[in-house]
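Marked as duplicate of an earlier ticket. Keeping the data here for the record.
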Amino acid sequence: MQEEFVYPETAVGDVLGIPKKRLRAIRRNCGLRDGEHFRTINRSLVYSVHGMKLLLRCMGTVGNGDFDEMCHKILIAANGSYTEGEGTTTAIVHLERPVCEMIVHRADWLNSRIITALLGGVQQRVNVTSSKNFVRGMRIKARRIEGDLWQLQGRCPRYRGRW
C-alpha cells in the first residue's frame, strides 16, 4: 500500500511554531527516512501520515488522543480546508495550485503591478509585471497566491490589448 504524503513542512512549522532548521534536526534525530516518512514534492518537503505520527511523538508534542486534532490544524494551515471521510480525515492537498482563466476587469490602478480580473463574476487582484498593455476583456491565466490575490501565469502582453 502506497503511503500518502499530505503534511507540508511549512504548515507543520507554522502550527508548532518551530523553524525549518529545527524541524530538520528533529527529523534526523528521530530517524525519519526519505521516501518512507517524508518526500520532496515540487521543492517542498511533505510528511506522510506515519512520518507525522513519528515526528510528533518524538517531539513529545501530542499524546495519542491529540494526534488527530493536531493533524486537522496542520491541514487547515496548509490548505485552508479539509473533508471528513468515513472515520478518517482526507486532506484536500494543492501543493501545485491550479491555473484558472480570468477576464481582465480593470488595469488602470495607481499601482502598475496590479490589475483586477473576474473569476466567476467575482473581482480578484492579480500581480503582473506591468499593467500598461492590459485592456478590459482580455483573457489571462493566473494562479492563486492567497485570498483574493493571484499571480499572472505566462508573459505580459507586448502590445496594448494583444498578446
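See parent ticket for discussion. The first strand starts at residue 5 and ends at 8.
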